[in-house]
């Protein structure tokens, strides 16, 4: 279960088990600790802000069941984003019984900044120093007993990925819950803040509803109006009138809110530096290896490497998917024969057999055979790059371009996910904090081609535009495909900028882009999570639509009016608008009936040209070329087909995902219309330009 509220959900508030908050900065392995303790397999993305709500699970410590809440990664309790506000509100207002703060052993000083802030509101805390194995590789040593003495709270060192230290963590946590709260060593209060803090504390009610007086006074003196409102509501007081208002005015005469915030932050930073200097020993260049890699991946060679890696992932996906797709298709064909014999034994009518097998079964199994292998290859590869720590480098390179488009740099990550599946890319937009920028990312995700569009694109390029033979033909095809991908990316920038200056106006938000250390991916977990979280999720939604779409397609090809099928009537109706944009009625109808999955668009078009009544696989390129040219295809038709493949409405799975993520059919319709309108305008421009040139010359 998940919650983003400051209060405990009913499922927790009604339970007798103690509730422990698990907090930490992004990329410290906090979710890995959570997974190891609870047995839940929450995805552990290796970039800031992957977790955007608090996940709750149970763990057993010394025979006692404890509820563990995995809070969003946060750099500070001075919230600058929605996810940081979730973590702050849970720690400050939800009254957990204890808190476990996870820090990265390779950069302990930075983690101590969060520890100091957590201790102000939740003194019953335990520090979990994770990634000790990474620190050991970098020859970094931490004196954990001395660190415990400096902080005044329990400290446990772990390596969560290998399970080292987790048993001790559970023991210390159980002891912490059943002992009196420790007495953490406080952060020294700056001299200029002593009198203002005393004034505000004296005016606070004795019963602060669980809020520590010193923490409350500090927060009220800082310029955080939203937090002030939450504090007032939680304590049941007014900050506009009465003794507290007078005390605040007197305190602000002594020190301004901005000066107060700066002084408190400086005190925390200084205290953290002093503690880290006492307990941490490390060589001067502990991160030398990462810096060497970043000279390439985050330096001037970063963009060429990024394009090369993207091309490699796509090549592996497209080429590697051919074999399992063929095996699945062959297996489904054999199963179809078995089902056909079974229906014959049951004396099923011929029309029913055709409806079930040629309609529903054929389309459903076609979608599975064509969609499953590419996703099962792309998503694990994508997740391996994520787990390795490379994806934040992609965001680093593309951040400036998205900022110029008045969008969020994190959109680069969701755009990359769209190459695997636009539905998964839409779901990934949750990592973007700003609702406006999240909506821009959702509306433009379909401008990058997904796996389902690549086979048809490659077929059209190979038949009409690839030059030469052998290796030369392969290279020219790859170059043209890369050109189409880059066109989709540039249109993503352009449309994002257009939306941000029209219906979604606003100022781009800032976000902290952390370049985490490179880590060896956990291949087993990556394969499992990418298959379950992304591949099965997307395929399940596609299958929900594929079955009724198969029934509809069967009806279009088998039901006749005046001697012609509904398919022929609809294709004739769409012929004129199709010709206006360089296509024809059969092509437009193929896109409309291919709404369940882009993979079946070309098979539907071939079925329409050959007057067939069911989808049949045609792998012979010469035969496909013969069918297309016999029905009037030219290089201009193929170019318009490629452009419309790149820019047209999202598939049904993506539309359902957009509806779920936005909660609005209005924005789902907008996401359907925006790329379609772009495709119509581009295809129309190409078609009419060629006609004008032919007319003149």
Structural class: alpha/beta
Number of strands: 11
Strand content: 5-15%
> Could you say which overall geometry the principal axes of the C-alpha atoms support?
elongated
The CATH homologous superfamily of the domain at 2-177 is called P-loop containing nucleotide triphosphate hydrolases
Strands of the widest sheet, in order across it, are: 1-3-4-2-5-6-8
Q: What do we call the CATH topology of the domain at 2-177?
A: Rossmann fold
What does this structure look like?
The protein has 697 residues and is an alpha/beta fold. Among the domains are: 2-177, P-loop containing nucleotide triphosphate hydrolases (Rossmann fold); 191-281, Helix Hairpins (Orthogonal Bundle), CATH 1.10.287. 63% of the residues lie in helices and 7% in strands. It contains 30 helices and eleven strands. It has a seven-stranded mixed sheet with strand order 1-3-4-2-5-6-8, sandwiched between helices. Strands 7-9 form a two-stranded antiparallel sheet. Strands 10-11 form a two-stranded antiparallel ribbon. A hairpin with a 2-residue loop joins β3 and β4. α25 packs across α26 (601-609). The longest helix has 44 residues, at 302-345. The model is unreliable at 1-7 and 41-53 (pLDDT under 50).
Topology:
Blueprint: E1 2-3, H1 10-13, E2 19-24, H2 30-38, E3 54-61, E4 64-70, H3 82-93, E5 98-104, H4 108-121, E6 125-130, H5 132-137, E7 141-142, H6 144-151, E8 155-157, H7 166-177, H8 191-203, H9 213-221, H10 225-235, H11 242-254, H12 257-279, E9 280-281, H13 288-297, H14 302-345, H15 350-388, H16 391-404, H17 411-418, H18 422-428, H19 435-444, H20 454-464, H21 471-500, H22 523-558, E10 560-561, E11 564-565, H23 566-573, H24 575-580, H25 585-593, H26 601-609, H27 621-630, H28 635-646, H29 652-662, H30 665-696
Parallel strand pairs: 2-4, 2-5, 5-6, 6-8
Antiparallel strand pairs: 1-3, 3-4, 7-9, 10-11
